[in-house]
Amino acid sequence: MATVGWAAAVVIFIGGLFFVVEYVLDRIPSFTDRAVAAVRALRRLRDEITRDHDEKKTAESSVETEEKEPPAPDA
Predict the structure, then answer these.
(1) Burial environment of residue 47 by CB neighbours within 10 A (0 to 12, 13 to 18, 19 or more)
(2) Distance (Å, rounded) from C-alpha 14 to C-alpha 20?
(3) pTM
(4) What are 47-57's pLDDT values in tens digits?
(5) What whole-number distance in Å separates Cα of residue 29 and Cα of residue 42?
(6) Count of alpha carbons within 13 Å of 19, Cβ hemisphere only?
(7) What is the distance between the alpha carbons of residues 72 and 70, in angstroms, rounded to a whole number?
């Protein structure tokens, strides 16, 4: 009789396991969509930071260039 109980427990466990796996696999597309949106947001943020950094670097280099260049002789 104990074997029947264990067999029933194993069948219920396997059924529950399949239910959980199916539930998780059904939810992966929504997780994927959220992950894609998050990655895109992070890339936009990185691009914005890089763009700001490049603009500052360009502005600083133009100021340094103006300071280093000797004045042009009047012709």
Answers:
(1) exposed
(2) 10
(3) 0.44
(4) 998 888 777 77
(5) 20
(6) 6
(7) 6
Q: Angle 51-56-57 (CA atoms, 0-180°, nearest 5)?
A: 95
pLDDT tens profile 14-45: 999 999 988 887 888 877 788 889 999 999 99
Domain ranges across the chain: 21-53
SS (H, E, C) the chain: CHHHHHHHHHHHHHHHHHHHHHHHHHHHHHHHHHHHHHHHHHHHHHHHHHHHHHHHHHHHHHHHHHHHCCCCCCC
**Amino acid sitting at position 25:** L
C-alpha of 33 from chain center: 11
